[in-house]
Amino acid sequence: MTAPIKTNNPVTVGVALGDRAYDIVIGRDVLPSLGHRIAALRPGARAAIVTDRTVARHWLGKTEAALADAGIASSRIVVGEGEASKSYAVLQEVSEGLIAAKIERNDLVIALGGGVIGDLAGFAASIVRRGVDFVQVPTSLLAQVDSSVGGKTGINSPHGKNLVGAFHQPVLVIADTAVLDTLSPRQFRAGYAEVAKYGVLGDAALFDWLEAHHGEIFSGGAAREQAIAASCRAKAEIVARDERETGDRALLNLGHTFGHALEAATGFSDRLFHGEGVAVGMVLAAEFSARLNMISASDAARVQRHLASVGLPTKVQDIAGFQQEGLADADTLMTLMAQDKKVKRGRLTFILLEQVGKAVIVNDVDPSMVRAFLQEKLSG
């Protein structure tokens, strides 16, 4: 765990990818510096801002002003909110919008929004004119600590989450912590699940610190920025050594195999935000690890207790409409998990725990054990 940071000084975390390296700039009120940072990176570039309607009301004008202040011409593409926008139809809308705006290969796409916008805009940037650079300006806690970093972009398929996409690294990430002030408590909690994930999977000291200081993170100030910086450093280190998820990067999917199945079962709707699915999925992963005698039941309970203490759902029964859409059916969830990107030749792969602070990749998990475990959890 790193020392506390000063809130009046932006913190820069580097993502070391050789000639594709980039910076994550974290701090309060760093958005106004966006234009000048882009001008230094790409002199003469124009920009197209992709955002959603809710973010546009709060931050689009300020983003356009920051670009204009640096002499950067910009256009805008505004789409609907939520996971429904991670679709083929909206991808086409954004891609055609970029082409209509005459965005060229030496220009930039700016993803202004949460994880949905980052994934959608980044994927469109990766395919328009066979690849245009893009900048991430994440406006949710989840996006600032996770989805804006690492180059994963994509949309959902009716078969599952993020099944169509590409690795396309941003050239810059601007994480202005002031934008988090406009989040609802539920949205902030959902993002916090990804912060806790970094402690659970690889940093026991961070998890200890989160247990003691989560109240300060929710109230704002130095603890919030410290948590964001620690999360970005953790992800940057993993991405730098395994950019395309051929090894260690899969550890970042702790909670996601269960969580993505639950998101799909709820129709990628606001009944279950992504971070909420990850929270439930992390608890299920911890409890399944205990079932396999990899960790103690007390360690699994510790994970559940911390997530519950901040108001996150931690069991399937916490999800709205639990009895609907297959949530109470183990076979449906098993079918959805079979679409997980970590499945290899039909064999299930899970990220499980050897202790709080140490996750491992477990290949070829016996599906009958998973189904029996799920059935027990679904029965309450």
Automatic annotation (TrEMBL):
SUPFAM superfamilies, A to Z: Dehydroquinate synthase-like
Pathway listed for it is: Metabolic intermediate biosynthesis; chorismate biosynthesis; chorismate from D-erythrose 4-phosphate and phosphoenolpyruvate: step 2/7
| Binding-site residues, NAD(+) | 81-86, 115-119, 139-140, 152, 161
Cofactor note as given: Binds 1 divalent metal cation per subunit. Can use either Co(2+) or Zn(2+).
Ranges where the 3-dehydroquinate synthase N-terminal domain occurs: 77-189
Q: Can you tell me which residues bind Zn(2+)?
A: 194, 256, 274
User: Which intervals hold domain 3-dehydroquinate synthase C-terminal?
Assistant: 191-343
In the record, the note on similarity to other proteins reads:
Belongs to the sugar phosphate cyclases superfamily. Dehydroquinate synthase family.
What name has this protein been given in UniProt? Answer: 3-dehydroquinate synthase
Q: Which organism is it from?
A: Afipia broomeae ATCC 49717
Highest classification ranks of the organism: Bacteria, Pseudomonadati, Pseudomonadota, Alphaproteobacteria, Hyphomicrobiales
